[in-house]
Amino acid sequence: MDNSKVQEILEKQVLNVVKAVEDKIDEEISALDRLDLDDIEVLRERRLQQMKKMAEKRSRWIALGHGEYSEIHNEKEFFSIVKASERVVCHFYRENWPCKVMDKHLSILAKQHIETRFVKINAEKSLYLAEKLKIVVLPTLALIKNAKVDDYVVGFDELGGTDEFSTEELEERLAKSQVIVYDGEPSLNASKSKGKTKSVRQSSYSSDSE
Fold it and tell me: What sections of the sequence does the record tag as coiled-coil (predicted)?
């Protein structure tokens, strides 16, 4: 196929996209034209109520410690947190490099996703909880919804098997389990990471070894 033919096909595709966008805009304008003042006032009031509810939610989240990545020190504190917040990401860690990498990304995501509580707990100092939740590899993220562990992110295997994964890749993985609210596009880094071969030593952990 020569270049002129390819160019012609591309131009047709662009025109089709433009026409679809224009049709959508025309449709929205027509819908607005059909609204009377009462309809507009109803929409405005509904929007104000939505904003008010979101502001109330935000204040409640902040009061519960959302927006920060914090450390908890015992099982009692853990259970209080998961009962108080609808969505919680809990990082079971020990003092090693892979866990510090995870800390860096979670600190960023805690500020970006105020709807979710982000915490960490030292697995070696919380033997009962680690054993109860069957934590074996560190780091492990317990993804908790409505006071129940819904999923786990174990080590870096789902993040390309390397400590060079991006915050966006972790964000997408958490979104997959719906423990955060995420409307973003899939990251290009996710496909790139599959080609990496660098290995990372992750800690095997067992309370028996203690």
Answer: none
